[in-house]
Amino acid sequence: MTPTTPFARVRPATVLDAGPLAEAHRTAWWETYGEVVPAEAHPEPAESARGWWEAALSDPDGPTTWVAVRDGAVVGFSRAVAPGAGNVRPLELQLLYVLAAEQGRRTGTHLLQMAVGDAPCALWVAAHDLRAQGFFRHHGFGLDGTREQRWGGLTVARMLR
Ligand SMILES: CC(C)(COP(=O)(O)OP(=O)(O)OC[C@H]1O[C@@H](n2cnc3c(N)ncnc32)[C@H](O)[C@@H]1OP(=O)(O)O)[C@@H](O)C(=O)NCCC(=O)NCCS
Predict the structure, then answer these.
(1) Does residue 78's CB lie within 6 angstroms of at least one atom of ligand 1?
(2) Closest residue by CA, ligand 1 atom 14
(3) How far is CA 75 from CA 20, 27, 68, 137, 141, in A?
(4) What spacing in Å lies between the alpha carbon of 150 and ligand 1's midpoint?
(5) Any coiled-coil ranges, and where (predicted)?
(6) CATH of domain 9-160
(7) Which of 30, 31, 36, 78 has the most crowded Cβ, counting Cβ within 10 A?
(8) 54 lines ligand 1 (CB under 6 A)
């Protein structure tokens, strides 16, 4: 794909984005984990359902979801939550996905910046995904040695900044 503009536009999502966000989540999820998590090992993630996004985006107390749009299509999104007292960082990057065809165009950087700025933050990343870990290291995060097992035996590693 040849981009028509240098950067995707990043803006806050509204409830009208629920359908495209669910679709983009499903695509990004399978692009990221499809080869390591067998399809039969777990159900479709909650965030791949339009209803999950409709509820999340219509909650007036909920965090902002940031959506990246290129040529009218959702090509990435991010969302950080405040996990509350007692957590290792005041912010957790809950979601950051850029569709494969859009990667390497700074969309991930822009989505990360909008969701967490330069704040101290925690996130979980697939332990095998050295590319994503390199991206986050580039942005000041480091592995803290904590690992967890998630769906279908996927190992995730925690990174902190
Ligand atoms: C990780 C991810 C968000 C990165 O998004 P992206 O749009 O491809 O990244 P960008 O184009 O913004 O990368 C920009 C910068 O990071 C650097 N970078 C990217 N990957 C890197 C790597 N592996 N090692 C070092 N630096 C890296 C680039 O050199 C670039 O630096 P610059 O801004 O100084 O020029 C994206 O690849 C993705 O969605 N992956 C799958 C899902 C995932 O793993 N999400 C994270 C867990 S929630």
Answers:
(1) no
(2) 106
(3) 9, 10, 6, 23, 24
(4) 22
(5) none
(6) 3.40.630.30
(7) 78
(8) no
